Amino acid sequence: MTRARYWLLISLLCITAGCEEENSEGATDTGLADDAASSADVSADTADEDATPTVDAGPDGWDPANCEPSFEAWQRHSKPLVETYCSTCHGEEPQFGAPYSLLDYDALLAGEPGERKVDRMAERLLDGTMPPPTSARLPHTDLDTLVEWTTCGQQHPDHSQGLQASAPVWTAPEDPPSDADHFDVTANAFEIGLDTLDHYECFVIDAPVDADRFMRRFEPVIDDERVVHHLLVSIDRDSDETRDSFRCGGFPPGDGYVYVWAPGQAPIEFEDGGVRIGPDDKFVLQIHYNNGAGVEGVRDSSGFRVYHGPTEGTEYGLASVGSPYIYVRPNSEGQTADSCEVKRDVYIRASWPHMHEIGTEFETIIERADGTEETLIDLTGWSFEAQLIYDTPAQLSPGDKLRTRCKYDNPNDHSVYFGEGTGDEMCFNFMYISPPMDSPCN
Q1: What is the pLDDT of residues 331-343, one digit of tens each?
Q2: Copper type II ascorbate-dependent monooxygenase C-terminal domain: which residues (predicted)?
Q3: Domain-located, residue 278
Q4: Both 34 and 140 in a single domain?
Q5: Residue range(s) defining the domain that contains residue 267
Q6: Is residue 49 part of a domain?
Q7: CA 259, CA 235: separation in Å to the nearest integer?
Q8: 159 falls in which pLDDT band (50, 70, 90)?
Q9: Which of 62, 223, 279, 417 satisfies CB 3.0 to 4.6 Å to 302 for a cystine?
Q10: CB 433 within 8 Å of CB 346
């Protein structure tokens, strides 16, 4: 084999395996170089050889000095992921310029906190430079698992990184309404095991009201942020459900969705009125759990808080527009689109775009009856774990149209179709509208 063909082969392998190019000084930057750079500032008293290094907290309060990643979680969850995504370069015998293996637990934890290979690994996962840009992005749950393990559950990846939106996230006033009552809807010390990964649990809770009320404000109540990734709430009206909780994938059952929370979403509040809740209704609270750090003895009671008042003012409901016609071929990009015509006067207060794991872009356009167009919401850099509610007030009139389009990038060796499972896909814009109805185009 000629030298030119040899280096061409190495280059192609590095592109497909995720190895990075050499820097200007000839040193290979794999994102995990064992050099002076580290995920925390480390200083020592050079006059005292026995002095203990001072380790500053890492990003957003992550403290390597207070973290010894679990060996059991490494064996069960994290090592298989490293073998899958990193071992081409960082295997038992490092290749393509990688400085060391990432498969030896003891070697990863050797050294002072802040200077260990596992700390460098965490930093690179958090800042998005590992795997490098030439590699396929890690699935959400796998990235969560690795970050949680390397930081002992102190950190979660920022899934909104790269997300760009045409509208701001809907944010409530800092203080709740002074004249409103409130109640909490939460899980009841739900046990999270060491093997709890990518787990969706639904909790059924009776609405604690004795007459119809308007829910005016929603706030997240996050008990153990080490294991909670997002939550979704539906209302089941006149339900005969007898289970307190059950495992559930896709959307939670019920007659309509009322609230969603993911990291980055602030409380939401209606300026006037709210969403109706009645004494015969039940909440179905779905929580997505992932114990990638292998934290022991976790019992979670996360959920949400509702501020409510009399049925006065504007009544809102959650309606949807979008397309159920989705087919994305293996290892391909695809899109779906739908248009519907508004039949009556409708006010849109906010938008919650929804796709699943292979979604990339989302938009809903208002086409006015006179032919002019307005953007209701436009997203790029979609992340399934960054499902946020956006501030998109708009008044619609008969003859206006809502056009919704979703784009996808399918890295799998199988086709993806419409469905409720996270491995399936969706394309919906759920909107708080008034008057309440299933769709503004009904």
Answers
A1: 999 999 999 999 9
A2: 334-436
A3: yes
A4: yes
A5: 181-313
A6: yes
A7: 10
A8: low
A9: 223
A10: yes
Both 411 and 326 in a single domain? yes
- Radius of gyration of the CA atoms of the chain, in A: 25
Query: What distance in Å separates the CA atoms of residue 281 and residue 54, rounded to the nearest whole number?
Result: 55
**Are 399 and 356 in a shared domain?**
yes
Q: Which of 254, 279, 313 is the last residue of a domain?
A: 313
Q: Model confidence over 351-383: pLDDT tens digits?
A: 999 998 899 999 999 999 999 999 999 999 888
- Rounded Cα gap, residues 258 and 234, in angstroms: 6
Which residues are within 8 A (CB) of 175 and not within 5 positions of it... i.e. 6 or more apart? Answer: none
Q: Could you please report the per-residue DSSP string of 158-217?
A: -TTTT-EESSPBP---SSPPTT-EEEEEE--SEEE-TT--SEEEEEEEE---SS-EEEEE
Measured CA distances, 293 to 28, 113, 122, 126, 224 (Å): 30, 17, 12, 15, 13
Nearest alpha carbon to residue 383 among 147, 197, 171, 137:
137
Question: Which CATH number fits the domain that encloses residue 256?
Answer: 2.60.120.310
> Any residues with CB less than 8 A from the CB of 327 and at least 6 apart, and which?
334, 415, 416, 417, 418
* β-pairing verdict for 428-434 and 346-354: antiparallel
Total count of residues recorded for the chain: 442
| Residue 227 near residue 298, CB atoms below 8 Å | yes
Dig out the tokens for 233 from the structure.
């709430």
Q: Tokens 């979703």 belong to which residue?
A: 406
Q: Are residues 306 and 252 both part of a single domain?
A: yes
Same domain, 372 and 248: no
Note whether residue 24 is domain-resident.
no
* Whole-structure pTM value: 0.71
Q: How many structural domains comprise the chain? A: 3
Task: Let me know the angle formed at the C-alpha of 210 by 186 and 180, rounded to the nearest 5 degrees.
Answer: 65
- Averaged over 165-190, what is the pLDDT? 95
